User: What shape does this take?
Amino acid sequence: MGVVLQIDKSSPFIGSLLVSQYVKKDFQLTIEWGKQNLVTTEGATFSTASSICRYLTRLAPGLCLYGNSAVEKTEVDYWLQFASEKLSCDSEFDNALLYLDRTLGSASYLVGAALTLADLSVWAALRVSAAWCNAVAARRVSSGTLNWFNLIASQAEVTEAIALLPGLKVTPTEQAKKEGQRDEGKFVDLPGAEKGNVVVRFPPEASGFLHIGHAKAALLNQYYQTTFDGKLIMRFDDTNPEKEKADFEKVILEDVKMLEIVPNVYSHTSDFFDRIAELCEKLLRDGKAYVDDSPAELMKQERDAREESKHRNNPVEKNCEMWREMVKGSGYGQECCVRAKIDMKSDNGALRDPVIFRCKTDEHVKTGFRYKVYPTYDFACPIVDSLEGVTHALRTTEYHDRDDQYHWFINALGLRQVHIWEYARLNMMNTVLSKRKLTWFVSEGLVDGWDDPRMPTVRGVLRKGMTVDGLKQFIVAQGGSRSVVMMEWDKIWAFNKKVIDPVAARFTALEKEGVVPVYVAQAEVSKKMTAKHPKNAEVGEKAVWMGPNILIDAADADTLEDGQVVTFINWGNLRIVSVTRRADGKVEKVTAELNLENTDYKRTSKLTWLADLNEAPLVPTVCVAFDNLISKAVLAKDDDWKSYISRDTRHETVMLGDPELRNLKKGEIIQLQRRGYYICDEPHAPVSRYTGKASPCVLFYIPDGKEMPQPTGTKGSSAAKATESKKETKGRTAKAEVSSKASSGASTAELYALVGSQGEKVRKLKSKKADKEAVDVEVKALLAVKADYKKATGQDWKPGQAPPAHSEKTTKSEEAKPAGGSESGQLYDLVAAQGDKVRQLKSEKAGKEVIDTAVKALLAVKADYKKATGQDWKPGQVPPAQSKDTSAQEKVQKATTKESGAMTQDNMAANPEAVNLKVQIDQQGEKVRQLKTGGADKNEIAKEVQNLLALKAQYKEQTGLEVSGAARKPEKKKKPDVPKPTPKLEKKQQESSDIKHKTRLGLEARKEENLSEWFSQVITKAEMIEYYDVSGCYILRPWSFSIWEKIKDHFDKEIKKMGVENVYFPIFVSQSALEREKAHIADFAPEVAWVTRSGQTELAEPIAIRPTSETVMYPAYAKWIKSHRDLPLKLNQWNNVVRWEFKHPQPFLRTREFLWQEGHTAFATYEEASEEVYQILDHYAFIYEELLAIPVIKGRKTEKEKFAGADFTLTVECYISASGRAIQAATSHHLGQNFSKMFEIVFEDPETQEKTFVYQNSWGLTTRTIGVLCMVHGDNQGLVLPPRVASVQVVIVPCGLTANMSEDEKDAVINKCKAYEKLLSDADMRARGDYRDNYSPGWKFNHWELKGVPIRVEVGPRDVKLNQFVAVRRDKSIKLTIQEADTVQSVKDVLETIHSDMFNRAKQELDQFVTICTKWDDFCNKLDEKCLIMAPFCGCEKCEANIKDDSAKDRDVEAGAPSMGAKSLCIPFDQPAEVTDDTKCISPKCSNKAKCYCLFGRSY
Assistant: This one.
């Protein structure tokens, strides 16, 4: 029998609705919407939220929502009462919130370790609480509580429940996203906002024109007005009669109209002056304000010293008397002001009795001389906001300190509350937004007025070509972010380009100076109509005139050559007959002929041009570009801004314009081809009857987010070749000189020296910053002589490597010998003949074994050819004359005979044991295949593979032959057995034995046999890194860098939630800075890299390259931190560091340069700093476990292993099962006051007034994460990437496309693949289709498998017909057939399953190899079994060193790595057992009592 839950539409019990979504899976539950909340069953009715929740929860005991024990059930009952009483009572809410913060400080859930009814009930109570919204807006909620609230909100059942609520329960911001808005930033949901009931306001001061910052404020308010169907109030703040002017009110209203903002209400603060004065008198009567006649300077001193004014305790009568003097405007009254009595001891200066009314005798623009007292903006704003019905006041973060003051006024006056929501002000680089400074530019005549295109005013940017739509898109893209950043103008102009590009008509203009005439034979005067915009016919058409006399830019003419075919845009191809140049080399004129029948435009350069005709005279045009008024990108607080003013910021170019430009209207936006976008500021005017001259068309350049295009932006190949040929001509002498030396019979020793001298020449030119063309010439000469050296020696030139003794590879007699008659010529013919044989066998569809035999023979002779000639065989390429002795023909015959013999039944029958072994091998091979396809455990598969290899080795020992293929058809993906590593010289010989070795696509080393070689091959063949010519430094390729970007994006977002800001400090450290903290830098001293020279000059003092940034950052901290108000200071930088590591370098794991983030924070108290250290560690653990699917062990470093200079270090440790070694994944350090004492980072304690050292933390995460990922998850097929960080999550490969298929059938498969790619991409999955037609599907399978893409989708003709596809999981090689209708959800589910399975597999390995030992013998044995060991430890550093030394072995743990003993990794937070009095330290040399269990193991 089902249960019916009734929910009241007008006042729903959200907690009951949440519970219903969880329990409905266990029994039939029907939800009905009515006028009451209740459940009726078996004669009983439950109508309270708590009773309904309890009843529903008890119907599904298996969910454990009521807890798992009597204690937990009691706790749940307590929280139900807490939610219904404490959180629902406004007077008790603040205390309840503090209690909730303390409870959730270190816990994920309220009761136990899982979600319960307690969490759902408390969350539901908070969601409908206005007090909660106010607390969030005022930032009075701890991060722990906010994280818990967001965690519950993210549950699928909670999301479903909220979606069921009637009306607009999805927030307006989310609704807008659902309706398809694009290019939006993150807009916060206004607390307590309801659709139709939101009122916002835009309150400018009428003291200047609106600038770009005001535009952001106005447009943000308009956004929330339209999103919530609310009301926007346009209110002039006219509280200061000295500043307001009627003219400014008029222009502001015009600016708002230009921004297409339509307020619902227009008002002035002065409309409420009488009411504001009444409220001021109320504060005086209530003793919450007083009148003060102290001089302004004294008042400031008292506020800074937190001393009370002598008038603070005036009786009410005296305050009222002084107030009356102010209202009259008497002489004494003008010396007085009214101050709110808030808190003179407050750390917040805005609360130290602020002034709320003062006397002003100036005439008011609206009220004249009616008033003598005027309220301050800070006092008037909250009052008028409340009186006008404003629900949400949007303010920039610079007002944050005044928010408490705002709320104090509201509360003290008993007014309606207003939500404050903060956003970051708009800060633009190379710009000042102060009205005072902008007014100075106008008054000094540096600009033409407030609408000058160089001004950041609304009128200025619109005149420069900014569109209202572009400005709106930019503001919307910024969203409601609180992050204060300096924005480059390029970004806003890039948004504008998106708006104007689709509609801007295309025209042509040429620079008047230096224009070159072109005479076109046979061309007649004519015109044709063509589209103004090539992609938008709605823009209209224009006339293009043609004739025998045309003009082109001088820079374009300089690229032309005789006989060259050039495309003249909107005309066609012309052939250049001749180019006439003057004595100075500049082009004087050009002659061309029509070549319009040639329509090949792909290989030609493209020129803009204009016809010089009387029928269509050109339009005189002036193009104007503007620079920034401020030369410095970011002005510091102490900078004298006037010293950075640019004087020459307007640049004009006289042009000859398209005849069509005479029709342009003012404000019309166009694009001049190959020159950029322009806006018409002054239209062309014909000859004036007064001046006798025509007015040119004046065009202002519109930036587009990129560099301003150059007049010649030709990208055609012909022009490029022409330019390149000129460069070559300029450097021909130098190049010929070097080449002649190289080809004049020089010995290899002479060539070696020549390369060295030419390289030095290039370096000198670069150090002197010589002209690029001169450098290019010498570089080409260097490359030429290097090529000669390689040709002579057969090897690349390397510094310090002497050339081989046998320098002369050929004699003159050998050079004269014909290639065809040489041995290399015979080898060439032999390869060609064998290749023909292979092709013939394939065309005849011979047996696979026969073809394989012929192919192996072909590879063998190709290898001999390469060995003899030093180059690969290529068809049509004549072989070199020289050759080495080979009997290749015999090898071909031998290989063919041997292989064919191995396949005969006669040979097999002659050896019964071999036949029996062959049967066993076939059976064992089939067993291995079944294990692999069934997704069996890797260890089990590896064991059976070893058995198979042993049988094959036994077979070869008896027969002398390799095992041929079994009777079954071999799988396409089968990989050959990888031989053990051999020296490089032997590898070339192995290439002839196997196709896989020839292609080198797959891995040639096995992870379990040679981890170091396997790792090297994985990261290079999977295109993660490229080796570099500086040892220990590596190139991160896009495949690996995308992983780092995803880690960076996640962590950056999380730390910004904690209030951390990003900065960048220099990479260089002075020697004196390092000397200041010798103790800290001691550990890094051997690894510090030093810059000692500048060019050839020795530096006076060497400069270090940062190994870490404490010494760089903390001197600045000492300057910035003076008061407790400057704390906490939380900074982070994403950068690179250099540690000249001389231990065995390994890519990602141990490198000389690596990328990382390093956070450095400072706090006033130890408790704050300590809390952050643990928070950061949790973020690091989340990255490894939730992004990389790698389990970690969290703990604290021992005193010996902690960071130098830290009080303590926390760490997350990972385990690499293949090597049995741990790796430090990330660390978070509490530095205590150690560094603040070194660098004198102090603040004034507000209580003791004494200087106090700050408490500091530092924490870092490096690109080592990528190496850990590869080592933990990779297998013998390559990488295995976790889906959440994979650059490509799904690769789609079309299959089954044969030569016999029609083009329509092939297109159907390709189009279906592209449809899947779009479908998955639209669902926010990173999908890529592999449509390369030069690789087979099998090759692509191996390629993407090697790169570790989580899912491979295979689509063939049969799949298209059945509306399905095959998905192959990379982690388990499992094939799944998925119906097209289920594509998105199924693929998402598979990706999540892959992540879960990868984590569980790694967790199982970690748990398997973490063991507890209390005896030394067991300790050493387990260490040799690749275990990490939890062992009792006394904490003594000497014992720690003994443990490491005594457990070391006289052998290498890993190829290329030093032998090592067990070091302490961490003291785990989760201790495996309790330490008793009888528990002794694990060290056999120690008799001390153990203090804890410590994790030991070998480590990278």
The mean pLDDT is 82. The longest strand covers residues 1221-1232. The two ends are 62 Å apart (CA to CA).
